[in-house]
Amino acid sequence: MNDYCIPTTAVQPKLEKKTVYLIASGDLRLQSNRVTWPAQAEMEEQLIAAIEGHGWSVKRAHEFDESVGHGFIGSQRQGLDVFRQLDVSAPLIVAEAVWQYSHHVLAGLTTHQGPILTLANWSGTYPGLVGMLNLNGSLTKAGVEYSTMWADDLLAKEFRDRLGTWLNRGKFAVPTDHVAPLQGLTIGAQEEKLGQALAAELRQHKAIMGVFDEGCMGMFNAIIPDALLNRTGVFKERLSQSALYFETTQTSDGEAQEVRNWMEDRGMTFATGPVHEQDLTDAQILLQCKMYIAALRIADDFGCDLIGIQYQQGLKDLLPASDLVEGTLNNSERPPVTSRDGNRVLYKDEPLTHFNEVDECAGLDGLMTNRIHKAMRQPVENTLHDLRWGDWDQSGTVEDYVWVFEISGSVPPAHLIDGWAGAVSQRQPAMYFPSGGGTIKGISKPGEIVWSRIFVEDSRLKMDLGRAAVVALPPEETERRWRETTPQWPIMHAVTYGVSREQMMARHKSNHIQVAYANSAEEADRAMLAKAAMADALGIEVAVCGTRKTSDW
């Protein structure tokens, strides 16, 4: 007789009726979780009161941990251990008042059978809405059904009514009638011809996406499976950040100083100080300039058409933040860097498209945008932003709802008022960046933009895109918005055409949104439709959201 050790699966006790689990995914960094825990605890207190107001009870699936000083799930391992103890058929709320790493809870959510609600506060300072959008995009890619909610005030009647609907029915949805499939829209003959030709060119000649340490920011939704990406003609070159670190250390001080001199000659300001732990120092800037040179040379070594650096994780303990590098790479006018033999200027007079946080969806989008805008003689600089927050303009200058698009550190200076001369580099917060490093901070110039997002759903690539305006706000209103968010980062005041706050939050499948300027409203409309035609020809399912500036759909 065989004496096998056959494992048994424990049957978890059923949760009592009218009881809901509450979980909270946290950051990967211990200090961040400790600092932000009070905001999460306050939000949960209000949420529990709202749930109990409907006659339901709450069971927190994991307790506050005295040994670490917070009550977040802080790793994927911890998340697996938490979900292993749960009644898989019970309703569950993932409540977020801060940034979170989706992979901490994603594995458990993929096998949970009860109703799932992702829920966030509405705050610029504690951006649970950003973390929730990242989790929503990850759940969408994983094929997990969920409902989602957000609120300025968790005790307000409107939110309590929505919450009651989900508690009693297990589902809740905000209407998304602002979304129109591409097949129902009219695209100009020239725009359609251009989009199809660029798609054919990409598939025939192909492109290389250089990826430095895929996935270490924990964003499952930001990784495009190779089989889907390759169908567009784009192939990954998986690169190691250790190579970027080594190449940075091999770059000379003289070359790096030339990069900084070039930036300062064009008016950029570096807000420096003497203390490494709290200030942006000259030594940090020199290393960032070396990384810029190193990134271009590595990209050239592998023939990359675009690259993405993991801006926080991986290198944060070795080098200053990569923000100065990222925004500079995405600009046409930037410090020249020669090849190793000195015979060529690398990627001369054009951006080396960079996708922040190695968000491959933003990378593919950025590559397409660059080619569409170049062919249409529109500005080629484009970047992702966080869909960070939004509020009504308290100065009364703009009547529309104004979003805060705010990337985690840098944009191409061409997007800023006064370009390089409007850029200021400030030290990244020490809590996240012990080695420091400067940003490219500034205010985005007024103008017409195209916004977009590529995401994965139903095992295929999809794209949402629409139109918006960047508006000018008084200095005091801009400063208020910076105080409410992260004052070291560049800011864009955006008004989305025909897409309300509720509609954007209900539909958008990421915390990131891609933006590019056009020279006029009419040209922006055409660029958007040409990009839609290119995406469609590449096999990407396209939806256009809202309205365009020159006419309704």
Structural description of this entry:
The chain is an alpha/beta fold. It has two domains: 19-169, Rossmann fold (3-Layer(aba) Sandwich), CATH 3.40.50.10940; 184-545, Alpha-Beta Barrel (L-fucose Isomerase, Chain A, domain 3). The chain has helices at 30-52, 76-84, 103-110, 128-142, 157-169, 189-205, 226-230, 241-249, 253-265, 282-302, 323-329, 360-375, 475-484, 501-507, 521-537; strands at 19-23, 57-60, 92-96, 116-121, 147-151, 179-181, 207-212, 234-239, 269-270, 306-308, 353-354, 382-392, 401-405, 424-425, 447-457, 460-470, 492-496, 512-518, 541-545. The strands form four sheets. A six-stranded antiparallel beta barrel has the order 12-13-17-16-15-18. It has a five-stranded parallel sheet with strand order 2-1-3-4-5, with helices on both faces. β7 (207-212), α7 (226-230) and β8 (234-239) form a beta-alpha-beta unit. α10 crosses α11. It is globular and about 70 Å long. The model has no long low-confidence stretch (mean pLDDT 95).
